[in-house]
């Protein structure tokens, strides 16, 4: 339980800041670059996705909190997504809203779900280097669930 609290704590701080009157322009870097958001979904717990992750991610895009929003399916979340129709429908809504969807190919191969996720329109590929680049990018915020 402590581990999950620490992963969610930065998000709570973000919501608190968002409710203190910050404008959408606050998300712009001084150099004019748009701030991006990368959400790494690793948990195999459905409620984490439906009650938190999905709601925040779709609103981050629809409300303009971030111009560029990416969700990465990694680890147990790949298996859960491949098996759950409700989650698949929510993923389609994220895609329709403009959220970029990616998945770790090594993870999907381990669970035998590569083709299932590709059919959902998810870009399945090696993510180690890409995720490292996201972490190092000063214009990206990375949240891990």
Explained architecture:
- This protein is of the alpha/beta class.
- It has one domain (35-144): 3-Layer(aba) Sandwich (Hypothetical Protein Ychn, Chain: A).
- Helices cover 53% and strands 17% of the residues.
- It is built from seven helices and five strands.
- It has a five-stranded parallel sheet with strand order 4-3-2-1-5, with helices on both faces.
- Helix 2 links the parallel strand 1 and strand 2.
- Helix 2 runs parallel beside helix 4.
- The radius of gyration is 15 Å and the shape is globular.
- It starts with a helix and ends with a strand.
- Residues 1-6 and 12-32 have low confidence and may be disordered.
How big a fraction of the residues is strand?
15-25%
Q: Quickly give the CATH architecture.
A: 3-Layer(aba) Sandwich
Q: How many individual helices?
A: 7
> How is the largest sheet built, in terms of strand order?
4-3-2-1-5
CATH fold annotation:
Hypothetical Protein Ychn, Chain: A
- Per DSSP E runs of 2 or more residues, the count of β-strands stands at 5
- CATH class designation: Alpha Beta
Work out the oligomeric state of the chains in this entry.
single chain
- Determine the structural class based on helices, strands and strand pairing: alpha/beta
CATH superfamily: DsrEFH-like
Could you tell me the radius of gyration in angstroms? Answer: 15 Å
- In N-to-C order, the SSE pattern is HEHEHHEHHEHE
Mean pLDDT, to the nearest integer, reads 85
Distance between the termini: 13 Å
Shape designation = globular
Structurally, how many domains make up the residues?
1
What is the makeup of the main sheet?
A: 5 strands, parallel
Helix content percent band: 40-55%
């Amino acid at each position: 339980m402590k581990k999950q609290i620490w992963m969610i704590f930065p998000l709570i701080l973000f919501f608190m800041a968002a409710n203190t009157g910050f404008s959408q322009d606050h998300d712009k870097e001084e150099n004019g670059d748009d701030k991006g958001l990368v959400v790494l979904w690793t948990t195999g717990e459905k409620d984490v996705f439906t009650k938190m992750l999905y709601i925040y991610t779709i609103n981050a895009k629809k409300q303009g909190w971030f111009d560029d929003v990416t969700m990465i399916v990694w680890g147990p979340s790949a298996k859960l997504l491949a098996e759950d129709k409700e989650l698949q429908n929510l993923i389609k809504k994220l895609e329709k809203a403009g959220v970029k969807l990616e998945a770790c190919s090594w993870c999907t191969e381990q669970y035998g779900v590569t083709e299932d996720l590709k059919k959902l329109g998810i870009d399945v590929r090696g993510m180690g280097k890409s995720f490292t680049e996201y972490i190092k990018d000063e214009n990206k915020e990375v949240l891990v669930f």
